[in-house]
Specification:
The chain is 7% helix and 30% strand. With 122 residues, it is mainly beta. The strands form two sheets. Strands 6-5-4-1-7 form a five-stranded antiparallel beta sheet, with no helix packed on it.
């Protein structure tokens, strides 16, 4: 009998977002019945909405829950860190693989080699 996939315990690390930080939602969030005054299934937060972190709490002694005030909607909704992206912190720059001029990259190059194209003969 398995207990399912074990998830990382977020609260062992510092919170990703701090109170006052400007954030954007990366997910649509609908009321599951826990948000008072709104119908079940009613959209609480749309993907791309911008808000501000007001407070940080925890859930199940495992996850951070960020109380985000969505100014345009006039609501405060608890969000997981994976549902948010910071607008105050720059995103980390990811290195791109270097390529030679005119060289094929990735799956296209492999497909050409398998098909016996001119790139396959050296």
């Amino acid at each position: 009998m398995g207990l399912g996939v074990e998830q990382e315990i977020e609260i062992r690390k510092a919170p990703v977002f701090m109170p006052g930080e400007k954030v954007r939602s990366t997910k649509y969030v609908k009321n599951d019945g826990t948000y008072r005054g709104k119908d079940i299934g009613e959209m609480l937060v749309a993907k791309g909405d911008v808000g501000y972190v007001r407070d940080i709490g925890t859930f199940l002694q495992q996850f951070y829950i960020y109380a985000v005030e969505w100014i345009d909607r006039g609501t405060i909704v608890g969000m997981r860190g994976k549902e948010l992206v910071s607008l105050d912190k720059p995103e980390p720059v990811r290195a791109r693989p270097r390529t030679q001029a005119g060289a094929e990259v990735g799956a296209e190059a492999g497909a050409a080699a398998e098909a016996g194209g001119p790139e396959a003969t050296a």
